[in-house]
Amino acid sequence: MTTLKTTPLNAAHRAMGAKMVDFGGWDMPVNYGSQIDEHHQVRNDCGMFDVCHMRVVDAKGDGIRAFLRYLLANNADKITLPGKALYSAMLRPDGHVIDDLIIYFMTEQWFRIVVNAGTADKDIAWMKQQAAIHAPNLTITSRDDLAMVAVQGPNARTKVWQVLPQTKAATEGLQNFQAADCGEYFVARTGYTGEDGFEVMLPKPKVEAFWYALNKAGVKPIGLGARDTLRLEAGMNLYGQDMDESVGPLESGMAWTVDLKSERDFIGKLALQANPPSSKLVGLLLLDRGVLRGHQQVHTAHGTGEITSGSFSPTLEKSIALARVPNSVAVGDTVQVAIRDKMLSAKVVKYPFARNGKGLI
Amino acid sequence: MSNPSNLKYTASHEWVKTEADGTISVGITQHAQELLGDMVFVEAPQVGRKLKAKEECAVVESVKAAADVYAPVSGKVVAANGDLDGAPEQINSDPYGAWIFKMQPDNAADVAALLDAAAYQAVVDSEAH
Lengths: 361, 129
What we know:
Chain A is an alpha+beta fold. Chain A contains nine helices and 21 strands.
């Protein structure tokens, strides 16, 4: 038996009655009772998530913007306001997705990068390898000293200000997708739920006290189960399910993050230009009774596809999914999904499915 | 919640209740519903279907996962609980009240031979290790 990695909040989860699961080698809370209640809690009020397993990386030095412009599929030049964040894919030279990540522009000498847990080590190795070739003066540091808590929901910001009043002045003017460095606390108006809120990065020794203070202020802990249904409703990809190193961003609903029109060169650009995609990611809404799940086959008039993420949507009270299907499949089409020994009907829809407390379908 | 002593159990986490008319009601245990989490869909077997013991015959799906339900004994399906179509969460809130289907067993002795509450608890405890 391998030993699971733990976050600094492990004891707190157990004390709060979490059901713990092995999540990619991490011992993480899947729920603290009802996953559906936790989901509604975030859409209607607010909740907090342990995201300490995700990795913060600081890239520093002269020329950091030029390096990121080359390293990432999205264009770092889009963020010029201090603190502003950008979502991007990081591609291999063959155009396949190493990871999806968020970069924060802090100064022309400092960008902060947040990457996925399961991919952090390979991401950092790749960044360092590319930096050694293209920008040897940069330093790329994995901030293993930092913890991260996401507080999400319509009342999330108010609760964070209640617990960290010293950060309010610097963060109340933040736009969506913008962060402020408040000394020990780095507060970003970002998240993975489709709701307003903050992601707070802070020193590991302080995170348990922060977690309990939020709880005392009325913020409920939310497990990975609700995190998954929230992000799926919000139409946000999950690396390892909706895309990975076997596909490109254009087949993964990430075309909006890939800038192929400008003169800018970036890793993977030539491959993307040479290989136009034959499939795409669409939303599915199940019309029959049942639950859509990852890897179920989707039969369309234009060929077969596959569900990448599927679940029950607590907001819509219907089953929803993201599916990779042939390009010719269009919104409004009815497709058949193979579930056990049956073929069930689903409608192709535009996603997101829900955001800001409301269903959009 | 402890497992009621008036019920019989299977190692695959079904509970079985013998009714006054000799039919049996079948549901999933407290332990099973807790592992699965919030239920969102139940597919009961067709009334009239003949089942062999341990045959897959129903499906319960939570937000998290789908799980098969097995026939505890051989027999014929005589009823399906339609209330669960609109309220699958009854399995979470009242696992020993929310029956999924009823069967007429071929042989009442097969039911008597199923696990009792203590033997079932031993199965649950052994899975925890």
